[in-house]
Write a structure and sequence with these properties.
There is one protein chain. This protein is α/β, with parallel strands linked by helices. It is about 40% helix and about 15% strand. It is built from 13 helices and 14 strands. The strands form five sheets. A six-stranded mixed sheet has the order 4-11-12-8-7-6, sandwiched between helices. A two-stranded antiparallel sheet has the order 1-2. It is globular, with a radius of gyration of 24 Å.
Length: about 400
């Protein structure tokens, strides 16, 4: 210990002066960093908000343990999602991204908490606000950004765009309101049929919650005891309509009637994680489906064509940002419990900014897919498939 202090003291004495401040050698900075990391708390316990329950005798625990490694991973993932969406906003306004584009900033705790509560082998399907889930399911920022700009290096080879991104055990990205819910029930049926103890997380928004096909899916899932976690991401507004003006009952976690449900603070990544673990265990035990409502908030409008302030005030948005922001909440927890330093958080933020900027460069320089790729990947076929064009004389080829 004495030798280490001597090394640091000598380095500080011999440090070069620059702009009135003393600098230390790179080797000494590593020593100091190693010592400061060693002083940090490896894990801590946190209280989380009690869930509201429907047809359940008990719910998730109201206390959980977070390790330093988990906390930093959740922070990095949420912050990457936030930066990615802000960059998408910028590229859209520059008319580099075109078409539909629904941003996820504000709701990051939902995607990260859900992923932390299930296994990579479990399945997930969502609606059109899908960039965050594409990232948590393992797709790189490069591929997501390139898909948004319609480039060949995109996750769907530039032909899916904002609403249609896919990955292993991730089924999109679906543009028709509520249509992914029956598909999710079907994936859960496949999980049950194959007997692998896997579950399907099936997400929809409050704006889709009154769709008839959702209730049909509830009925089949309950009847056949499918391992399906139905999740309503309630961000308070369906397009420009508040939930109070759209739904006779805003207790979305009770909408399954005969299906047990729980209402969760969707701005707290730890609360979402624990609730998802609880729901996944329930489904894996063979009890059938369960319904979760995540109370969350989106900072942007419904889509990039919606400024988001004609049906709510700027003050309302700012209040949520200042009191309930999921990224700030996690950062404050970690710093106040000595699980991370402010300098460490700033370094992570700087790394993420560089990663997203590099991804944006790739997304604007990568070539667009060539015309001969237009009809590829329609079907999974071994031999080339002939596709009729816009008239009987135009013939195109489809390869997969």
């Amino acid at each position: 210990m004495q030798n280490m202090l001597t090394v640091i003291a000598n380095a500080l004495k011999g440090g070069a002066k620059m702009n009135g401040a003393q600098t230390v050698s790179e080797g000494t900075r590593v020593v100091v960093s190693a010592r400061s990391f060693a002083d940090l708390t490896p894990q801590a316990s946190f209280d989380i908000k009690r869930c509201d329950l429907h047809r359940l005798d008990e719910g998730p625990s109201v206390q959980t343990v977070l390790t330093r490694e988990e906390g930093l991973r959740y922070y990095r993932t949420m912050q990457t999602m936030r930066r990615m969406e802000l960059k998408a906003d910028q590229l859209y306004k520059q008319k580099i991204i075109r078409g539909f584009c629904h941003l996820y900033d504000g709701q990051e705790a939902c995607a990260v908490g859900i992923e932390a509560g299930i296994n990579p082998t479990d399945h997930l399907i969502t609606a059109y606000r899908a960039h965050g889930y594409t990232y948590t399911r393992g797709v790189s920022v490069n591929k997501i950004m390139a898909e948004l700009t319609g480039r060949r290096g995109g996750v769907a080879k530039g032909k899916g765009g904002s609403m249609h991104m896919y990955a292993k055990n991730f089924y999109g990205g679906n543009g028709i309101v509520g249509a992914q819910v029956p598909l999710g029930a079907g994936v859960a049926l496949a999980c049950q049929y194959q007997g692998k103890k896997e579950v399907c997380v099936t997400l929809y928004g409050d704006g889709a919650a009154n769709q008839g096909q959702i209730f049909e899916s509830f009925n089949m899932a309950a009847l056949w005891k499918l391992p399906c976690i139905f999740i309503c991401e309630n961000n308070k507004y369906g397009m420009g309509t508040s939930v109070e003006r759209a739904s006779a009952s805003t207790d979305y976690y009770k909408r399954g009637d005969y299906i047990p449900g729980l209402r969760v603070d969707g701005m707290d990544v730890l609360g979402v994680r624990e609730a998802t673990k609880f729901a996944a265990d329930y489904c894996r035990s063979g009890k059938g489906p369960i319904l979760m409502e995540l109370q969350t908030y989106r900072y942007h409008g419904h889509s990039m064509s919606d400024p988001g302030v004609s049906y709510r005030t700027r003050e309302e948005i700012q209040e949520v940002r200042s009191k309930s922001d999921p990224i700030t909440m996690l950062k404050d927890r970690m710093i106040s419990n000595n699980m991370a330093s402010l300098e460490e958080i700033k370094d992570i933020d700087a790394e993420i900014r560089k990663e997203v900027e590099a991804a944006a460069q790739f997304a604007t320089s990568d070539p667009e897919p060539p015309m001969e790729d237009l009809c590829n990947h329609i079907f999974h076929n071994d031999a080339p498939l002939e596709v009729r064009g816009t008239n009987p004389w135009m013939r195109l080829k489809s390869l997969s």
